[in-house]
Structure formats: structure tokens, C-alpha cells
Amino acid sequence: MKYSRGTVKDFSGFDARADAEALRKAMKGMGTDEETVLKILTSRSNAQRQEIAAAFKTLFGRDLVDDLKSELTGKFEKLMVSLMKPAQLFDAYELKHAIKGAGTNEKVLTEILASRTPAELRSIKQVYQEEYESDLEDKITGETSGFYQRMLVVLLQANRDPDGRIDAGLVEQDAQVLFKAGELKWGTDEEKFITILGTRSVSHLQKVFDKYMTISGFQIEETIDRETSGDLEKLLLAVVKCVRNVPAYFAECLFYSMKGAGTDDDTLIRIMVSRSEIDMLDIRRELRKNFAKSLYQMIQKDTSGDYRKALLLLCGGEDD
Q1: d(Cα 158, Cα 141) in Å, to the nearest integer?
Q2: What is the Cα–Cα distance from 21 to 225, expressed in whole angstroms?
Q3: For position 261, what pLDDT does the model report?
Q4: For residue 167, what pLDDT is reported?
Q5: DSSP result, 162-191
Q6: What gap in Å lies between CA 295 and CA 315, rounded to an integer?
Q7: What integer pLDDT is reported at residue 262 of this predicted model?
Q8: CA-closest candidate to residue 71, choices 33, 45, 99
Q9: Tens digits of per-residue pLDDT, 248-261?
Q10: Distance between CA 198 and CA 166 in Å, rounded?
Q11: CB neighbour list of residue 10: distance below 8 Å, 6 or more residues apart
Q12: Residue 36 and residue 205: Cα distance in Å, rounded?
């Protein structure tokens, strides 16, 4: 699928060898010309970056990513190395590191599994298996539990119904089932939420949420907020938000990654890299609309140095 709402697109006069030579020159000898590195890598598409890496190896017998790691440091290094990863491998890598070692990073599991399309999830599972010779689902079930785990497993099946003709009867039925499972029940029937939110088509669920509001007088988010808690609550809310509007979900994640004291750089890097060719223009618009904030200005205020320059280029300019 070709997305067109990104800020990063194929560079028109692309010459992989010329870029490889410029990058080698920028990193050779004493000191590094970071400006050249960030300008090239942020203005080439992910597919073009892979070609640059191949040309770099052909011309110099060196690994571009290894050179970036040895020449750059800190958050700027992480951002440049992330840009070099093929898209689905980047998601697989982020998931692997979210379930590695002490403690699981539920935030990463939730963000990726709630927001990716079934086709993207299938691709991520395959890449994970090839790259790490282990099964993503097994790894995730080993590190999670309860209804949170079960919802993740449902999403990992990547079997959400495709968008098609809306069945008004089923919309009504699902809305009633959710109402009975949440607001009308002493205790919550989480399983009903998991099945409906995890398997129905996006267009169907949008109608279900409208109907739910009519029946109950509540937004579905309010019910989830009241009736569930912890990681399950965050995951169900992420799924609902992504069903409503994926760019708005990422705009919210970016807003909270930079709001208040300190910056959640891992989230900032992950979203700026993974959405730069997909829907960054829409994310900027949603941030403006829902939080009255400019992504460009937030990044400018919250980051510094070459890291900031590179993020601003991925952001792609200031909104009117």
C-alpha cells in the first residue's frame, strides 16, 4: 500500500552512490559532519536508505549502520540508526526490545499492536520470525498476562474484518452487548470488549461507537475508563482511538511525550520515524486541532542540537 500523507518521500534526483560517498566523507577521519548525515538520511525514503547502505558496502566494504553507531552518540545516534531500519523490521525491533530482559514495556506493545493494520501486523510477525528466529506471539504471551495478554493475542491474529457493507442489525447488537458487558453489569465482561474491539471492521466499530453513545449516553472511552484499569484499559483505549482516527492517536502520543517536565524520547523517535512516510501531515493537523499545538514548535522547545534538527526535518515544517 502506498501512503501519501507523509513528510518524507522518495528523493527525486536520487543517486545511491553519491549519497554513500557523501556519508563516508562526512564520517571519515577526525570529527564527523553531522549536518550532512542528518540532511541526507531525513530527505531519503526508507527504501532509498536501504540502497544507500548497499552502495556504501559495495564502495567501501563497510557497514553504514556500524559506522553511524561508532561516529554518532546519544539520541541523535538512536534516531539515525532507527531511520536506517527497514520499516517492518523497525517495528519488530521495537517489540523485541519491549519484551526483553527485566520488565516489559507495555507502552510499546500497546502503541504498535493497536495502531498497525492487519497487513502490517502479518508482516511484522513474519519479519520477527525471520530476524529473531522466535515467535512474536509466544514471546508476548510469555511476558504478559490476563485480559491484557488476551487482547494482544487477538490483535496479533491480524484477523480484523475488512471494511465492507455495514450491517445495521449487527451494529445495534454489538452496541447492546458492550452496554450490557460494561455499564449494566456488576463487574465487567472484559471478554465481550476484547472480541468486539479486536475483530470487527474499523467502519463497523465507528458506527458501533455512535450507537453506543445513543444507547448509554456515554462515549465508549468513558465506559472503558470506568470499568477497566491498568494495561488492559490503556490498550482498549488505544484500539478505540485508532478505530476513530489513527493520526489523532499518534498526535496524542506525541503531545504527551513532550508535555510537562522531561521528554519521552523513545516514543518521540519511534513515532517520528515510523509515521514519517505514512501520515505525519495528518498527525500535525490533529495535534493542531485537538491540542492547539504545533508539532514543529513542540519539538523545537523540547529537544536540541543535531537531534532537534533531524526531528524538525522529519516533521517537515511549520503548520500554518
Answers
A1: 16
A2: 54
A3: 81
A4: 96
A5: PS----HHHHHHHHHHHHHHTTTSSS--HH
A6: 7
A7: 86
A8: 33
A9: 999 999 999 999 88
A10: 17
A11: 44, 45, 47, 48
A12: 46
The per-residue pLDDT for 209 is: 98
Look up residue 313 and give its amino acid.
Answer: L
Q: Which of 142, 206, 216 is nearest to 179 (CA)?
A: 216
Give the three cell numbers for residue 271. Answer: 513515532
45-72 CB burial, b ≥16 within 10 A, e <16: bbebbbbbbebbeeeeeeebeebbeebb
The rounded distance, in Å, linking the Cα atoms of 26 and 216 is: 61
SS (H, E, C) 192-222: HHHHHHHHCCHHHHHHHHHHHHHHHCCCHHH
Instruction: Give dist(CA 139, CA 98) in Å, integer.
Output: 10
Q: What is the grid cell recorded at 244?
A: 476513530
Is 140 within 8 Å of 156 (Cβ atoms)?
yes
Overall pTM > 0.70? yes
Q: How many CB atoms are located within 10 Å of the residue 44 CB?
A: 21
The residues, ordered by sequence, that sit 6+ positions from 118 with a Cβ below 8 Å of its Cβ are 158, 159, 160
Distance CA 123, CA 88 (A): 7
Residues of the chain with pLDDT under 70: 1-3, 101, 185-187, 319-320
- Interior CA angle at 4 toward 205 and 284, to 5°? 75
Q: Would you state the pLDDT for residue 193?
A: 95
Contact 144, 230 (CB under 8 A): no
Q: Which amino acid is at 9?
A: K
Sign of the CA dihedral with 64 first, then 67, 71, and 77 last: positive
Take residue 91 and report the three cell numbers written for it: 517495528
The C-alpha atoms of residue 248 and residue 318 are separated, in whole angstroms, by 18
Separation between Cα atoms, residue 262 and residue 213, nearest integer Å: 37
